[in-house]
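[Discussion] Sanity-checking designs against the backbone

I'm trying to build intuition for which residues belong where. Below is a structure token string of 210 positions. I'd appreciate it if someone posts a full sequence so I can compare it with mine line by line.
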């Protein structure tokens, strides 16, 4: 099993459908690209510059603060990147809960455990894919966030029971595998928080009961 603390993560922070579109594009390109280099645009609030790719890493301070890892890796599909990835750096930290709008596109961060890298990351540096299956199945809030993204009305939607959540999570897993197969890629899929390597859908079903 991969040691979480030895890795960087790049998370796709979109709804379920959007995540699959970006995931497929990354596989097709053979690399993770910055906004400046990709055909996708982002109108969302962000502090990273357009030539920077955001990364996160689990660290000891997340016990006291909500970290980039806690916010993104625990709730999004994430690429797991090797821990000795060259070119990674820490952006300048601003006070947590500061006046964020002043720092739009500034290259700074207000998140503990956030890192950056310029321009692109090759899929050769990817050692796995992390999907928080256990949280999606057992936590309705995480399930809604994952499949709907940041939506003002998401609390009133997708009020699915656990059986339906399992079904939809497994369908998402199938689509991820289909994308990988389309480009003849073999990248292991994990739920690192659950400590599970997902070899088949049955491994997801086994996690449904806490």
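Best answer:
Here's mine. Compare freely.
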């Amino acid at each position: 099993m991969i040691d979480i603390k030895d890795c960087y993560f790049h998370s796709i922070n979109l709804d379920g459908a959007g995540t699959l579109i970006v995931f497929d594009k990354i596989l097709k390109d053979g690399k993770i690209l910055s906004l400046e280099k990709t055909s996708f645009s982002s109108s969302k609030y962000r502090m990273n510059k357009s030539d920077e790719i955001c990364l996160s890493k689990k660290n000891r301070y997340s016990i006291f603060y909500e970290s980039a890892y806690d916010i993104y890796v625990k709730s999004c599909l994430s690429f797991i990147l090797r821990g000795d990835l060259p070119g990674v750096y820490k952006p300048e930290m601003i006070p947590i809960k500061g006046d964020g709008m002043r720092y739009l596109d500034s290259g700074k961060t207000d998140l503990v455990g956030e890192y950056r890298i310029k321009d692109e990351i090759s899929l050769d540096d990817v050692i796995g894919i992390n999907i928080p299956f256990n949280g999606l199945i057992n936590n309705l809030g995480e399930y809604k966030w994952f499949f709907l993204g940041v939506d003002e009305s998401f609390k009133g939607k997708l009020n699915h029971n656990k059986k339906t959540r399992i079904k939809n999570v497994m369908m998402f897993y199938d689509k991820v595998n289909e994308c990988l197969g389309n480009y003849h890629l073999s990248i292991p899929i994990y739920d690192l928080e659950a400590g599970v390597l997902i070899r088949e859908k049955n491994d997801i079903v086994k996690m449904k009961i806490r």
